[in-house]
Design brief:
Two copies of one chain form a homodimer. With 165 residues, chain A is mainly α. Chain A has one domain: Winged helix-like DNA-binding domain superfamily/Winged helix DNA-binding domain (Arc Repressor Mutant, subunit A, Orthogonal Bundle). Chain A has six helices and three strands, in the order ααβααββαα. In chain A, β2 and β3 form a beta hairpin. Chains A and B meet through α1, α2, α5 and α6 of A and α1, α2, α5 and α6 of B. Chain A binds a DNA duplex (30 and 30 nucleotides) through α3 and α4.
DNA sequence: TTGACATGGTTGCAAATGCAACCATATAGC
DNA sequence: GCTATATGGTTGCATTTGCAACCATGTCAA
């Protein structure tokens, strides 16, 4: 009778409520959605645009490729977000001295201002989310998420190396 | 001098690496992306289609509205996913006896089969994700995420009550 | 019964996205 | 220097999406 049973591995009966990618997606949507109201209805910005702005605001001048690398957003998405931000006069470009393909991106004063406003609101939003979890749990959650994100780009990678959505 | 300082609340300087919606989005993308390969390249399905299939497979026959409620996916997305699944002969509809607006959705045998295959692969994928965290952390993570998801629909809700993405 | 409003579901249309192909410059090998 | 290949970034095109408007049925109340 072998090793009896009791170790019927759940190789059958997929349990959606336990599936982490699904839970992560739902939680991400749930927490992002309400904040979206802020940048969307107030400023007519896209999620990607807000994220690119936030990266530039937080980390300072850098190239589009840098943004891709640290935010894991796909490069065409970043490219278009930058174009839109530039149209709105929130971001400006200047050619890199060392690599004429690359362009250094900087927030304009207007961009800094917008980042400050949205950052302010984001902090408040984050505070509300964390309040529901308690400070310790929230901090642990953040650290686990960072772990998952870091492991991301492992394994295979297609031609040109795409990412995100 | 009031209560001195030391309690300079972080009302300034937004810290992107601490912003939970951002971390959740990245983690969700990171963990979903590789599994997407499976349903996308193998079966040509979208994420929404896979999710709707998974809900029907896991919870049995129900209406589109039920799927919306439990999965927090917006109703037009569900509607179109169902239409696609029906075209692929994975889902069938029958009119509800009690409400002629509603349609009860069921997986066809082919749909059950596909769900079994994908469920199988999903379990394997989930196992890999959890392996990086360890069983306890993974379980805690899942429970925290469920908490965030549950709190979701709170606060305001627009006309007709939309949700998700 | 008859409105008035809620609800299940679909559709039109504009916007956002993914992916592959592309341009221009860089870099490496010869 | 010259070709082959890699890299930063943009663009074309097909898909997916969001949102509002819509249709049909249901419900509640006068």
């Amino acid at each position: 009778m072998k090793f009896a049973e009791g170790r019927k591995i759940d190789t059958d009966g997929f349990d959606l409520e336990r599936f982490l990618p699904y839970l992560l997606n739902q939680a991400a949507e749930a927490t992002s959605r309400s904040f979206q109201e802020v940048y969307r209805t107030t400023y007519g910005m896209t999620r990607t645009q807000w994220r690119v702005l936030a990266n530039l605001g937080r980390f300072g001048a850098m190239t589009a490729r840098d943004i891709c690398r640290i935010s894991h957003i796909e490069k065409t998405k970043v490219s278009r977000a930058i174009a839109a931000l530039e149209r709105d006069n929130l971001v400006s470009r200047r050619e890199s001295k060392t690599d004429r393909r690359a362009e250094i991106l900087t927030l304009t004063p207007r961009g800094e201002e917008r980042f400050a406003e949205l950052g302010h609101r984001a902090i408040e939003h984050d505070r509300q989310v964390r309040a529901r979890l308690g400070p310790d749990v929230a901090e642990q959650l953040a650290s686990v998420l960072r772990m998952l994100i870091a492991d991301a780009g492992k394994s295979q990678s297609g031609p040109d190396d795409a990412q995100d959505q």
